[in-house]
Amino acid sequence: MVLVSGKSILQKAKKAGYAVGAFNTNNLETTKAIIAAAVEMGAPIFLQLSSGALKYGGFELAGLALAFARKVPVPVAVHLDHGPSLELARECIGFGFSSVMIDGSALPFSANAKLTKAVAAIAHRKGVSVEAELGQLKGREDEVFSARHTYTDPTAAAKFVRMAGCDSLAVAIGTSHGAYKFKGPSGIDLRRLREIAAAVDVPLVLHGASSVPRQVVAVANKFGAKISNARGVPELQIRKAVRLGVCKVNEDTDLRLAFTAAVRKFLRENPSAYDLREILIPATEAMSEVIVRRINLLGSEGKA
Ligand code: G3H
Ligand code: 13P
Ligand code: ZN
Fold it and tell me: What's the pTM?
């Protein structure tokens, strides 16, 4: 019975100086992997669905997430990731999500603040918390595409939070979504993060935070994948970001990679297998392992 608001999870994390993992789900197996890891670690988590996930799995997939969240003994926020519109945010709030992101990052500053404020007015009446984004990550953010990074400005961030009334803020400090984050050195702008954290009092969120583990990519490639030059955010930098005030860390790509590697390996090693449960169990376990590692890194183990 522990579906809680994102705000309650993040305020505890901010006070105590750890971060909470936010993991994207697109199917039953990923949802099970996320929940199993959170329970094993006694950790609060965000179980999040993008609009793409809702298109793929329907609101039935969200219903599944809510059913798990209500039954497990750890705090879970069921969260809309990169909400593209007020309408979808409203629908998710009505459906029972405990947290929503409204992603107005492609809009001009004041239109973004206005949209966020309108979502916050609907959400807060129901005790649902709101994440907003200022600045843009390079690449695709669900339905929003940006050809380059627009880093978050610390002074603008403080003004934005005051105007928009959001409960947490996603910042652009050099990460991006997917498996190809850096061409040159793998670096995020920690100095900027320190300045944003000093200027803004709501918990900060790091998107595009997958680490793209070399060994997972190697297994996928060994068993037939062609994933070259993949690069993620080094774990040490994530730990530093948490020390500087990031309280929610999003991870999706690492789960997709773990799933892909495990399915490829299992099918190659078991060419006669066709029971889909046999195939998906090792993939589910592989995703859980990634999540357990991430919870350890963020310091949220035992914080349920
Ligand atoms: O923001 C990115 C997440 O990984 C969601 O990705 O839009 O493919 O569901 P998606
Ligand atoms: P990754 O692509 O780095 O896993 O980021 C996921 C994310 O930010 C979801 O919103
Ligand atoms: Zn994201």
Answer: 0.96
